[in-house]
Design brief:
The chain is α/β, with parallel strands linked by helices. The chain has a single domain, classed as 3-Layer(aba) Sandwich (Rossmann fold), CATH 3.40.50. Helices cover about 15% and strands about 25% of the residues. The strands form two sheets. The protein has a seven-stranded mixed β-sheet with strand order 7-5-6-4-1-8-9. A two-stranded antiparallel sheet has the order 2-3. A hairpin with a 4-residue loop joins β2 and β3. The chain starts with 8 loop residues before the first strand and ends in a 13-residue tail after the last strand. The relative contact order is 0.21. Belongs to the MT-A70-like family. InterPro entries: MT-A70-like, SAM-dependent_MTases_sf. One of its GO terms (molecular function) is methyltransferase activity. It comes from Novosphingobium kunmingense.
């Protein structure tokens, strides 16, 4: 991250490559591990990244998290110089029915897709908001719930960018990015894995 401008970014989006394993089946065999899709990092490795150097004095950090790593998310944000503010988004992972996200006749949404979990079966993924200094909220009408189909492993909905841009000002940095977006600085070892998105 040394090449990034210092004290520059007013908003940072992060989807940390948490190191953990999921299990399924009668014999509890490893299944759909994050390590099968990308290189994961330990909390110590991620905490050592110089994120605080890249962040502006007043900066918002939006971090996607998993339920088993809530305390780690707070520790990681603190290591980067941020404090927890609120839960920003909840992505309800929809199942596609016949290629449609909702019933065209009734408008009913399908049952959210059911994933694995240590206790309950997971159907949502949260994104928390952390701050340092006093970043300003731009719009008060940004919705919390995201209803979008599940995509490739760990790939988040594109609408997150529009919501974040409406919520807080930039310059914008996406960490652990796997696609590029106009108006954003993308950082990570998988940038370009998915096609670049066009800003609305």
């Amino acid at each position: 991250m040394e090449h990034l401008p210092q004290n520059h970014f007013g908003c940072i989006l992060a989807d940390p490559p948490w190191a953990f394993r999921t299990f399924s089946g009668e014999n509890m065999t490893p299944h759909r591990c994050a390590e099968d899709h990308y290189r994961t990092m330990t909390l110590a490795e991620m905490a050592a990244l110089p994120v605080s150097n890249a962040a502006a004095k007043d900066c918002a950090l939006l971090m996607w998290i998993v339920g088993s790593h809530l305390t780690e998310a707070i520790e990681l944000a603190a290591a980067w110089g941020f404090t927890f503010k609120t839960d920003a988004f909840y992505w309800v992972k929809q199942r596609l029915i016949g290629g449609d996200q909702a019933d065209l006749f009734t408008g009913d949404l399908p049952e959210p897709r059911m994933g694995f979990g240590y206790w309950t079966r997971k159907q949502v993924e949260p994104c928390w908001l952390f701050t340092r200094g006093k970043p300003k909220r731009i719009e008060a009408g940004v919705r919390q719930v995201i209803l979008e189909p599940r995509r490739e492993h760990s790939r988040k909905p594109d609408c997150q960018y529009e919501r974040i841009e409406a919520l807080v000002g930039g310059p914008y940095l996406e960490m652990f990015a796997r696609t590029a977006r106009p108006g954003w600085t993308s950082w990570g070892n998988e940038v370009g894995k998915f096609p670049a998105e066009v800003a609305a």
